Amino acid sequence: MKKIAVTAAAVFAVALLGMNIDTASAKDAKANYDHYCAQCHGTSGKGDGVNNTKDLPVSPRNHTDANEMKKLTDADVYNAIKDGGAATSKSTLMPPFGETLSDAELKDMVKHIRKLCGC
Predict the structure, then answer these.
(1) Residues near 69 by beta carbon (within 8 Å), at least 6 away in sequence
(2) What is the pLDDT of residue 89?
(3) Which pLDDT band, with edges at 50, 70 and 90, does 21 fall under?
(4) Stated pTM of the model
(5) C-alpha distances out from residue 77 to 6, 40, 54, 103, 108, Å
(6) What is the Cα–Cα distance from 92 to 66, expressed in whole angstroms?
């Protein structure tokens, strides 16, 4: 009986840890977005960040526009973040973050952007 209780507690603890990891990833992705992306894309992702001025040759993408964001695959979004705008034939003003963010952080960022657009 004691062995069953210990096993059940261990399974429960592992489940809780898994939930915390997902929650931590979501928090990290939001924090990374706020730090690296919000200056241009805005904290809510609407492309209305403080660096978005009429002097920019291209407006930052509105990550909340589901119709536009649905046109992009996850790989498209990942590559734009990793390699920057120039590498994806977009704005040369968007820097690459592949040396700044880990692969896991890049993937979490894609998930975060998908949440912003609801797509």
Answers:
(1) 63, 77, 113, 114, 117, 119
(2) 85
(3) very low
(4) 0.76
(5) 44, 16, 24, 13, 11
(6) 23
Q: Which residue type sits at 19?
A: M
Q: DSSP characters for 65-93? A: -HHHHTTS-HHHHHHHHHHHHHHTTS-TT
Note the pLDDT tens digit of each residue in 23-55: 566 679 999 999 999 999 999 999 999 998 888
**Concatenated DSSP letters of 30-63:** HHHIIIIIHHHH-TTSSS--TT--TTSSSPPP-T
Distance of CA 119 to the CA centre of its chain: 13
* 94, 66 Cβ separation under 8 angstroms: no
Contact by Cβ (8 Å): 28, 105? yes
Domains, the chain, ranges and CATH? 2-117 (1.10.760.10)
Tokens (6 digits) for 87: 């590498």
Q: Take residue 83 and report the two structure tokens written for it.
A: 């390699």
Contact 43, 34 (CB under 8 A): yes
